[in-house]
Design a protein that fits this description.
The chain is α/β, with parallel strands linked by helices. It has 20 helices and 15 strands.
């Protein structure tokens, strides 16, 4: 009774029946409580518009990109095993993109972050180039893992999956991943799944022997799937690689009625049915992690083609794995790192910066040292842009005339390097490197004697900041406020160091007193003590301040890697 009350309070549908032998009348009544799929939310999210680029003559007022694609985009297609020029199925129309989502039975980990940051960048860059995109990312909200975890915790499976789905969406928001156009859940699309199974042939299992092209995505042969190794042995299978389209119901598990009896969908059929429902049987991009190539995406191709012979996906895109300290991330090794564990001590955009520092198809090695480097780089970027904002606000700009030739050259160079690298299969690491020189130029204009005397200094600063803003926006690294982001980065640094700002300021006072007393050894000790904690002291004409930094003991390690 308590569980039922909890489900009603959570607004969950009562599909968990005591036994498959329950009457079909009760089951149909339960099904009638399932709400219809949520309507399309095509680009309805409150995304911050891209600032207008000085090199987009026909820039849109809404996103600052040209009205049509300005540069040829090339993407690596897993199916063809080569980079191909991106040509949408409907030139001038929407680009359809489906990315396999999470099975929400636990906290999301940095592997999830890696995948969805990568496809968020693709989503953003397609829009930057002028494409309209319908981006679909699903939730597999009923699955063996969900049921097992719910039983372990004594929780209703739908309550558990909803809780972890909400947590996942919160994690994605912190990482500044834009909401997809549609976020369908399996439990809302049972009718579509049953209809597709009927189109496939109506069997509980899909027979891969009946699909000659099976293996064309992964490059695997049917002989690779020997029974008793990585493929479960089941007497109902004609081939070890055959896979379930519909699973028979078990006592105490959620189930739906079907022509094959009570049960629930197999894993692979879900994405085929939902992608077809929202994007049609043929669309542009299907993505996910490298681990989904086989068997999930291979099976999707087979069953989708069986349901509709014209089914076709133009580009199969997959991101690489995440290792932790050069080892495969897994719970058994004790190196399983959740997004929330990282963001307890680091700004979420520092994690995003770290992920973008490696090409999305390459394996990435997660280490605290490299995360500290990314956080330090993010702080430097935001501090420079914040100083620029303050300087331009305090003084009046002369908006007349053209920019100095050297400033225009820096902006043009950044523009070219950014679009060239991003259009070459989303080389985000190169795009990030491209802002280094403009940031150095900005710091020279802000802080050096020569820079402060440069003609049209403020106009140069403003133009450079505007162009860097475009780059950061497309990469998903543009904060709502530079100042607020800097404060958050400082707070995280203090938390990592297990120290308060009051103690840091006290140490600064002690150091200042030691320097006045010419106790330079003590002064250096205080600096080194704080530096080892990731707190750097900055001496200036107005006194000493502090900023987060890479801990002193890690600088050599980071330099080597």
């Amino acid at each position: 009774m308590a569980a039922a009350a909890a489900r009603r309070a959570a607004g969950l549908r009562p599909l968990l029946l005591s036994s498959p032998a329950s009457t079909r009348v009760l089951h149909r009544r339960a099904l009638s409580l399932i709400p219809p799929p949520r309507p399309h939310r095509l680009l309805s999210h409150p995304a911050r518009p891209f600032p207008t680029s000085p090199f987009s003559a026909s820039a849109s007022a809404t996103n600052g990109a040209a009205a049509g694609p300005t540069r040829e985009l090339h993407l690596y297609n897993t199916k063809s095993r080569r980079k191909e020029q991106f040509r949408p199925r409907a030139p001038g129309g929407e680009v359809g993109m489906y990315v396999c989502g999470v099975t929400p039975y636990d906290d999301s980990h940095i592997g999830h972050a890696r995948a969805y940051v990568a496809f968020d960048v693709l989503y953003r860059y397609l829009r930057y180039l002028g494409y309209e995109v319908r981006y679909v990312r699903n939730f597999t909200d009923i699955d063996d893992k969900i049921i097992a975890r719910a039983n372990q915790l004594g929780e209703d499976p739908f309550s558990l999956s909803k809780r972890f789905s909400d947590d996942f969406l919160s994690d994605m928001a912190q990482l500044q991943c834009l909401p997809p156009s549609v976020e369908p859940r399996v439990s809302d699309h049972i009718d579509q799944i049953i209809n597709m199974i009927k189109q496939v042939g109506g069997d509980v299992y899909f027979s891969v022997d009946n699909f000659p092209q099976y293996g064309e995505l992964s490059g695997r042969k049917l002989d690779d799937n020997r029974a008793g190794e990585r493929v479960a042995v089941d007497e109902r299978k004609k081939n070890p690689a055959d896979f379930a389209l519909w699973k028979a119901a078990k006592d105490g598990e959620p189930w739906w009625d079907s022509p094959w009896g009570p049960g629930r969908p197999g894993w692979h059929i879900e994405c085929s049915a939902m992608s077809a429902h929202y994007l049609g049987h043929s669309f542009d991009i299907h993505g996910g992690g490298e681990d989904l190539i086989f068997p999930h995406h291979e099976n999707e191709i087979a069953q989708s083609r069986a349901a509709c012979c014209e089914s076709s996906i133009n580009y199969w895109i997959h991101n690489g794995f995440v290792n932790v300290n050069s080892q495969k991330m897994s719970k058994s090794l004790g190196n399983f790192v959740t997004i929330r564990k990282v963001t307890e001590l680091y700004h979420p955009l520092a994690l995003r910066m770290f992920l973008l520092g490696t090409h999305y198809r390459s394996p990435i090695n997660y280490t605290i040292e490299q995360l500290n480097v990314a956080s330090d780089r993010l702080y430097y970027t935001y501090q420079t842009l914040h100083d620029c904002e303050e300087s331009c606000q305090q003084q009046q700009n002369d908006t007349g005339g053209s920019l100095p030739a050297n400033t225009a050259n820096y902006i043009q160079k950044l523009h070219d390097e950014f679009e060239t690298s991003m259009s070459d299969d989303l080389h985000t690491s190169v795009a990030l490197a491209a802002i280094s020189e403009p940031l150095k130029v900005m710091n020279d204009l802000l802080h050096t004697r020569k820079g402060k005397k440069q003609e049209k200094r403020l106009e140069s600063l403003s133009a450079l900041e505007e162009k860097i803003r475009v780059v950061l926006s497309v990469l998903g690294l543009l904060p709502s406020s530079y100042y607020e982001a800097l404060q958050q980065l400082r707070e995280k640094a203090l938390k990592r160091a297990s120290i308060t700002e009051e103690i840091v300021l006290q140490k600064i006072e002690e150091r200042t007193a030691a320097r006045k007393a010419k106790q330079y050894e003590k002064s250096d000790e205080i600096r080194k003590e704080l530096s080892a904690l990731g707190i750097a002291l900055m001496d200036g004409p107005d006194g000493t301040t502090w900023r987060p930094s890479v801990p002193l003991s890690e600088e050599v390690v980071a330099a080597k890697t």
